[in-house]
Each structure stands twice: as C-alpha cells, then as structure tokens.
Predict the 3D structure of the following.
Amino acid sequence: MRPTLPTVAAAGCALSQLAPVTEPGMIARGTRFRRVLVVVTLGAALIGLALPAAAAQRAQLQLRLPAAVAVGQPITATMTILGAAGIAGYESQLLFDRSRLRVTSLVESGGLRRTWGRDATRLGPVETPSGITFGAYSCPVDCIDRSGARRTAGASGTLELVTIQLVAVTPGPVEIRLGTTRFVDTAGRPVTVAVPRTDRVTVKVGRSGRTGTAPTARWALGTGASRSVPGTLDVTRDGAVTAMDTATVVLGWLQSRESGDPCRLGRDVAADVNRDGCIDIGDVQAVAGAYGLSSSTRAALVPAGSSLSGEAITGAAKTERSGTAPMNTAVASSMTFVVDATDDADDANYGDGLCATAAGACTLRAAIVEANWHAGPDRIEFAIPGTGVKAIKLSSALPIIHDETGPVTIDGYSQPGASPNTDQLVSNAQIRIEIVGPGEASEFSAFRIVSPGNTIRGLALYKLWRKIWISGGAATSNVLEGNFVGTDAAGTYLTSRRIDSAYGAIELDDGASGNRVGGTALADRNVISGNPGEGIHLRSKNNNNRFVNNIIGLDPQGTKRLQNWIHGIDFNFGSSYNVLGGVEPGERNVVSGNIRSGVEVSHG
C-alpha cells in the first residue's frame, strides 16, 4: 500500500531582500545606469509540520530581478528554488502592467529534464491581461511514449525553474508582482508556498516617468482536496493513463487561464481530477505521475489520497486498448461513421460501436465519441438529407479527439454536392458542411486534438472562439486541408470584434509538432480568414510544422479583405523549424489584409 504523506502546512515567512550585487553599468541617452540585482526570497514549507523536527526542511523560492535598466533594455526575471525536496511540478504568475512591459522570451533556466531529474514538460505560458502564467510538470517515464525506467522521486536541491525576459517600452518605475504560485509532489498533492508580507519588486526604467503598478492576482486555486467523489486519472476512459490524458487536462488548464478563471470549469469538469473545483498543476501532475498504469488495478486510476469508493470508470474500458503502449494500427480494423443529422445531441451509449443518439440519429458529436472508443482508424463522413449547405450548430465544444490506436478522418467533402478546390490561384471549393458556434465570445473550440495522424477537411467553421486546437507532444502528423476557417461556406462571414484570448483560429501549442496546414494539391488549400485573433498561432515549442497553399486574410476569391483581427500567423515561445510557404508550385501562401502583421515571430 502506498504510504500516506503527512499534511503539508504553510509556514509564515517574511519576504527578505538580500544585499544587492552590482554589475557592469550600461550607457543610455548619455547617462550611465548602474544595474543592481535584487534577490527576493520567499519561504515555503516543503515538508509537513507533522514530521520530526530533525527531518523538517525548508525551501526558498528565489526571484531575481535587476533594480534598474535603461529603456528598451531587458528585464530578466529568474525563479529558483533553494533546498527543494520532492518537487515534481509547479505553476506561477508574474503580474505587471502590460502597457508598460512586454514579454520577449520564456525559457527553462537549466533545462527541464536536468532540473527535475526525470522527463518534464513546460506548462503554458499563457499571456493574460495582467501578466503571464506558466509552469511545468514531470513524468516518471517519457512524457509521450512512456518509455524508459521509472523515476518515482521528485526533484530536490537547487531547482532552476524559469527565466523570463521583459522589455519596458516607456521610462519610469515598473512593479513586478509574484502571483498565484503552487508546487506539488509527484502525485499532484500541493506544497503550500508561504504568503510573503511583500510580494512585489519595483524596477527603475530610465531616469523618470510614471509608475507602472502591477495588478493583483485575478484568481486563487483550489485546496487540492476533493469536495466530492474523486475523478479518475484515466480522463479519456480508455483503460490506461497516457499522454492523451495529460494533454486533455492541460487543455483545460490552458483554456481556464485564457478565460481568466481556473475555477470556472464549464464542461471541463473531468480535467479537475482531484475535484477541488479548479483545474491546476495538481490535476496535471496527478495524471502525469500515473503514466503506465492501467485499469487492471482500479486503485491506480484514482488520485492519491482519494477513497476507492469514489467515482468508477464509466462504462467498460476498451479491452483492446488496455496496457501501456499504443496498438499497432496495421492490424486494427477500421470503421466509418456517417453523420445524418445537423443537431448536436450526444451519443446514447458510449463504446457500443453505433453512432446513435437517443433519437437514433448519427450526429457529429456522437460520431467523434464512437471514433474515440473504437480501437483502430476511423472515418467520419456526411450524408445529411436535403440540398444546399447544412449547418451543425454547436452548443459546446465537441469531444476531444484523443484516440492513439488509429487516426480519425473527418471528411466534409463526402456530403453530397460538396467538392474541393480546383482553381490554381483562388478557392472555388464548394463547402456543404458548416460547423457554427454561438459566437466568438463563447470561449469554446470546435475541434480539439491531442492524438496523432488525424485529418479534418472540407468544413467551414465560424462564430467560434477557436476553431481547431492541436495540443500536446503526442499531437503529430495531423492534417488540416480544404477548409474555410473563420468564415462561412459562402466565404462572406467576418466577425465584428477582436478577442485577444482567442489567439489563433488554428492553435498549435504544448509541443504539437510535425503537423500540416494546407498542402501542395489544389484541393488542400485552406481559407483562414475572418477570425477574432490570429489566423494561425503557435505558442510553445511547436516544431517542424508546415503551412503551405493557404489564403490568410482574404475571401476565397482573393478579391475582398476578410481580415483576421490580429496577425495572419504568429510564432511564439520557442517554436522552431516551422516552414511557411516555399518556392515550389503549390507551396506559396497568400497572407494579406490582416489587421496587424501578416507574419510575426516573437517571444524567443
């Protein structure tokens, strides 16, 4: 039986400012500025107070910032834990006036794997109206394919967490505040960071100017203790704890921070695996820490410290998929589900192999459910009765596509009357299936993908906060082709507002790599226009993705502006080796008419 650790309690501790360290001066506008390093140390109780005094240890969270810089010079903030014991994950915030400071890069100071002593993955970052939120989680085996010897212990000693570089755009003092911060052990149990008497540092920028006041934290996190029956660590309910489960919880973590409240769960309640009412690092780490466990041991799928009399796994686990390794899809049978209704009703009986609502219809939502449950590759086609365009109106996000036993292909061109583009320069595609949301402020996405090899083609997606979200290191080799992303089947719809939190209509983050948007064939051309944020947005270490043969910011005929309200395409936070366009026929993109940049590369 796994031993139960004592309750972790916070220790009151004052914030202390150590003696400044002088560094070489720098010249700006004829004035010599002396750079001084301010070291802010926060106390944290990392071992429960119930332990014997001789065993008790204390750790300090150290935030390093310069005392003064010149306008336009970087402000480098470094976070380090001194004397850590058993740390496996964390999340934190830096809060500041975003009209005065801009984030230019975020990097793990010592490399995540070296820092944690086992495989680890960045969490976020998410830029919010009040600053930036970030973190990391670690895994006992490889965070994607679960290979390697298990490393069950968390990290100890000195941990270099993160280095964030900011740039001040105007002179004057700026406050930088440490926001909501949490550390957890390997099972996701919280280690409380003491609340300091002073939680902010002022950095002098230039010689004079107004003070940029840091905002207060906009949210608090849950207690880490269940308020109801516990959830299951097998979030996807496929019989094993894998990267698909972690990626599903990470999606909830990201979206809840983008929407400004990690405790406003909506339909993402499954991501709150410890059922404390919020989605936080504790939920992410609880799942990541259980990699390789299967439903053969029921206790393995319940969060540490929970009663085994809590929530059971709904329905029978897919026996074809139990175990710790993805199935060889070469021997798995394929299935085709045919959508024949425009309503948004759910599947009546998950995993029975039939796409059928209670009314007996096959909806897109029900088809995705059954594709996820079926072991092997799947196709979702359309045969909705009647002529003309058929609109599927969503009331909430569709189920996350997470089947790692075989890819899912959703083919809108299978609907009678639909046909892909054949024009050399523009798009004459005849889209007959629309996926329509209740409006861009709805804060939900149509498609969310965390598994490899899926294809979405021949759809028009609009009136949605985000259209297609590909997330996680396992989300590779996905293809988006022949779609209208942001506008309707006629190519005329344009949203009337900008929404910064929407980021990209097509969003790639959390290490999603090796995916393709568009393609060299005429039929592959996407129109990505009319969106409230960017057309395409890459956020965190998304590498080797390819973007070719797309129209971004214009209508399908290329004759009218149909702008994306921020950039056409935006590469951020360590996304590398991505290919945009090319010199060969069929590779060139048209990027025009967007409100800000056509293409932006930023944030390190």
